[in-house]
């Protein structure tokens, strides 16, 4: 008789399972079971933890779904595969979207590859661009998921970090002294020769937008070194002042530039998974080869409805109005949040330039702080360490889920402040 032990998981997965994201761990602490186990009433918990939006999707978008679902022939079509990079009609409408809202010139369907949201696309993009031994330059702090995505999609690639937050003064360095940050970027570049530089605009968790001179220096240096520059535009539509000129850069003009886009945040399509990459055609063709093995094709219903909605909303001007109205809601929620932080916590924080977040200096090890705060106040914030070493004494506070609930934002921060003064 053949006797064998349990089959094992891959070494890579075992390594990653041994290092779970601290953010996920904290979010697990805030699930219903854990809250009840702590003796808290789930109805009283206020969460600033979620990285999601809570405004309404455009009603015309909902109607586009109703039209497709209500028509037997269209509904039948929505159950079929599309091309691996998405339907050309949808790719062309997306190119028009970015031209219309941000003035990105000379974009065509050939520059667009559609996927199932920017998480899948970023993973597949790392597969497209990186070999073992390559280096990726990220900001510190930046979006916590990149490191895991690099580990899975490009095993053997290394990460170096460009510091953008001074944890001693809580200064966002690129805004305070862009020349110094450019000099540090060039120094790091000289030493590590990264194959890819990636930043978010606005970034998660800082909600800061890298100033144009820094982005320009990155583009010049990466182009000269035959390296890639990728910008994660998941929150591109959420900006509270005029965006910098690089929001209009086009991969038709800059062949080493890649823009990662998501439908999740601007149109509240988080669960209707759709995103796209804008890049020069050879990158898009390579993405097609990877997506043949990862998703086969993006969601057909989402593409059909997106193409229908955009055709209408671009023509009647309602897209611009929708984006402006949404921006006003997030700008208001951001202001309520920082006013309440100043009033109740009185701690250093950043002023959001867009996006859904701010970061606050809690002047102590953040993971323990977050656990104690949840237990004592029923208020959840996210510890900063997962975003980068500069945030190990900081927390991320998200106003995205509470965008329509300013009183809840105020109450949550008042509770936190009251507890902090009592310890
Ligand atoms: C910077 C950034 N990129 C990408 C994503 C994921 O977006 P998607 O829903 O398109 O996968 C997030 C989500 O929080 C994010 O913060």
Give a written overview of the molecule.
- This protein has 423 residues and is an alpha/beta fold.
- The N and C termini lie far apart (64 Å).
- The radius of gyration is 22 Å and the shape is globular.
- It has a seven-stranded mixed sheet with strand order 2-10-9-8-7-3-4, with helices on both faces.
- A hairpin with a 4-residue loop joins strand 5 (165-166) and strand 6.
- It folds into two domains: 19-56 and 321-422, Aspartate Aminotransferase, domain 1, CATH 3.90.1150; 59-316, Aspartate Aminotransferase, domain 2.
- The longest helix is centred in the C-terminal third of the chain and has 28 residues, at 318-345.
- It contains 16 helices and 14 strands.
- Bound molecules: pyridoxal-5'-phosphate.
- The site of pyridoxal-5'-phosphate has 13 residues, from helix 7.
- Residues 51, 117-119, 143, 200, 204, 232, 234, 262, 264, 270, 275 line the site of pyridoxal-5'-phosphate (PLP).
């Amino acid at each position: 008789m053949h006797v064998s032990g349990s089959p094992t998981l891959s070494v890579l997965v075992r390594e990653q399972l041994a290092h779970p994201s601290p953010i996920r761990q904290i979010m697990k602490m805030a699930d219903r079971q854990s809250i009840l186990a702590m003796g808290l009433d789930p109805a009283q918990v206020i969460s600033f933890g979620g990285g999601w939006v809570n405004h309404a999707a455009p009603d015309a978008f909902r109607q586009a779904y109703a039209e497709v679902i209500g028509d037997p022939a269209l509904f039948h079509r929505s159950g079929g595969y599309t091309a691996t990079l998405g339907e050309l009609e949808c790719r062309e409408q997306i190119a028009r979207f970015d031209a219309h809202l941000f003035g990105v010139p000379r974009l065509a369907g050939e520059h667009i590859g559609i996927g199932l949201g920017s998480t899948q696309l970023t993973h597949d993009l790392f597969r497209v661009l990186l070999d073992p031994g390559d280096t990726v330059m990220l900001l510190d702090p930046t979006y916590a998921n990149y490191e895991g995505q690099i580990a899975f999609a490009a095993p053997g690639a290394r990460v170096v970090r460009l510091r953008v937050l001074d944890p001693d003064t809580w200064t966002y360095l690129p805004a305070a002294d862009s020349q110094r940050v450019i000099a540090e970027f060039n120094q790091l570049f000289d030493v590590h020769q990264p194959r890819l530089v990636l930043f978010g605009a606005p970034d998660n968790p800082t909600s800061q937008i890298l100033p144009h001179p820094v982005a320009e220096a990155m583009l010049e240096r990466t182009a000269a070194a035959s390296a890639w520059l990728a910008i994660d535009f998941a929150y591109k539509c959420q900006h509270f002042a005029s965006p910098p000129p690089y929001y209009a850069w086009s991969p038709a003009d800059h062949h080493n530039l890649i823009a990662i886009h998501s439908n999740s945040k601007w149109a509240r399509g988080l669960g209707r998974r759709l995103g796209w990459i804008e890049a020069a055609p050879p990158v898009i063709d390579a993405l097609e080869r990877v997506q043949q093995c990862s998703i086969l094709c993006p969601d057909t219903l989402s593409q059909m409805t997106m193409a229908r909605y955009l055709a209408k909303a671009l023509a009647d001007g309602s897209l611009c109005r929708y984006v402006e109205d949404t921006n006003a809601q997030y700008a208001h929620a951001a202001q309520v949040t920082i006013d309440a932080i100043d009033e109740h916590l009185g701690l250093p924080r950043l002023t959001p330039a867009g996006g859904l977040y701010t970061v606050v200096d809690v002047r102590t090890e953040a993971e323990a702080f977050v656990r104690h705060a949840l237990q004592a106040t029923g208020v959840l914030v996210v510890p900063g360490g997962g975003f980068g070493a500069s945030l190990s004494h900081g927390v991320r506070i998200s106003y995205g889920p509470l965008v329509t609930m300013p009183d809840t934002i105020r109450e949550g921060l008042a509770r936190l402040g009251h507890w902090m003064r009592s310890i």
